[in-house]
Design a protein that fits this description.
Shape: globular
Number of strands: 0
Distance between the termini: 77 Å
Helix content: 40-55%
CATH class of the domain at 30-91: Mainly Alpha
Oligomer: single chain
Order of helices and strands: HHHHH
Radius of gyration: 20 Å
Low-confidence stretches: 14-22
Strand content: under 5%
Structural class: mainly alpha
CATH topology of the domain at 30-91: 434 Repressor (Amino-terminal Domain)
């Protein structure tokens, strides 16, 4: 008796990587807002209100779809505290020369010491 190999439907034809850049952008926005303990409103303010808080919130929401244009890259990068190249890479946009690409973007942590320790 021959057993069926799988009951899963066949994979759709065509490239499956079309969704990856959008998921990467969503992950970058969500992760940076969390790392910096920043609300979408604060991030929007840092972008000089070019990127509305509702747009940033939608970008970070799980299951939501978002796209950005070349004109928003600079302002979204400023809002998230990352180099412009990281936003371009995450959004699937073409790369440009950026002298600040090598800047580390770790979260800012404060060390708390006892007053007796010096």
């Amino acid at each position: 008796m021959i057993e069926p190999r799988s009951r899963m439907p066949p994979a759709p034809a065509g490239p499956s990587l079309l969704l990856v850049p959008d998921e990467d952008l969503q992950g970058l926005v969500r992760r940076r807002l969390w790392e910096l303990a920043r609300t979408p409103g604060e991030a929007s303010r840092l972008s000089r209100w070019v990127v509305p808080p509702e747009t940033i919130e939608r970008m970070a929401r799980i299951g939501a779809r978002s796209f950005i244009s070349e004109g928003l890259v600079e302002f979204l990068a400023r809002a998230l505290g990352v180099p412009e190249q990281r936003v371009r890479r995450a959004a699937g946009l073409p790369q440009v020369d950026d002298p600040g690409e090598d800047i580390a973007t770790r979260p800012h942590l404060r060390l708390v010491r006892d007053r007796d320790d010096k």
